[in-house]
Backbone:
């Protein structure tokens, strides 16, 4: 089969997404800044989250589904003792309870129950659609509906620092895993509640955050500078 005719702007761009931006915001800003006809992303990050966001440009968008399916690695922080409706700091506080005396060993013992294969129910405040409507739109109306659990796999869930009430952890998992749900569920297991306060994606498949450029820097580039930082279309297959 003949290879498609390629341009230097067919490839992948690794972005270090800032907080408060949606993944769609980043795509639109890059597309408009460089006046590109076709830009997509591989794996949504919540607005609160930062870190590695893979953009695909031009003909490289054909790889988006394959790149999205890669495993992910995150660093995060959760606050114990407080539960929110979205399971993260962007949500409304719904419960507050005393935090029991805990050690790192206690946290890691509790986290071990959430490794391996598991069925995870998406949060109500999420982009998952039920009957064609995103759950977050229903949540804004005060509605809660049944959600279909999804099979995910958590390879590692490890705490490396604890300063009550903040616990610092890392997670490696399959695509589609809600890390804020892991934080919420751990809080429920500990009996005090918890929510995610910070999340940073540090790897996606063979792509690493160390190779990404901050969005603020990218938006100062011209097209030749962009071309130099793109992973070319023909190299993407080696990242699957």
Residues:
């Amino acid at each position: 089969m003949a290879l498609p005719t390629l341009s230097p702007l067919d490839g992948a761009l690794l972005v270090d997404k800032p907080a408060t931006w949606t993944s769609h915001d980043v795509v639109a800003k890059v597309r408009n800044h460089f006046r590109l006809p076709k830009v997509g992303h591989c794996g949504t990050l919540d607005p609160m989250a930062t870190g590695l966001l893979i953009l695909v440009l031009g003909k490289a968008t054909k790889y988006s589904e394959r790149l999205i399916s890669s495993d992910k690695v995150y660093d995060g922080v959760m606050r114990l003792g407080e539960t929110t409706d979205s399971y993260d700091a962007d949500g409304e506080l719904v419960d507050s309870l005393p935090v029991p005396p805990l050690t790192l060993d206690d946290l890691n013992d509790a986290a071990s129950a959430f490794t391996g294969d598991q069925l995870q129910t998406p949060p109500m405040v999420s982009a998952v659609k039920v009957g064609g409507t995103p759950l977050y739109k229903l949540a804004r109306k005060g509605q809660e509906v049944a959600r279909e659990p999804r099979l995910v796999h958590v390879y590692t869930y490890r705490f490396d620092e604890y300063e009550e009430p903040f616990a610092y952890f890392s997670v490696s998992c399959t695509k589609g895993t809600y890390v804020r749900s892991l934080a919420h569920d751990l809080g429920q297991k500990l009996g005090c509640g918890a929510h995610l306060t910070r999340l940073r994606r540090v790897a996606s498949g063979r792509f690493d955050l160390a190779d990404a450029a901050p969005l603020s820097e990218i938006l100062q580039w011209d097209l030749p500078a962009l071309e130099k930082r793109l992973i070319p279309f023909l190299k993407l297959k080696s990242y699957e």
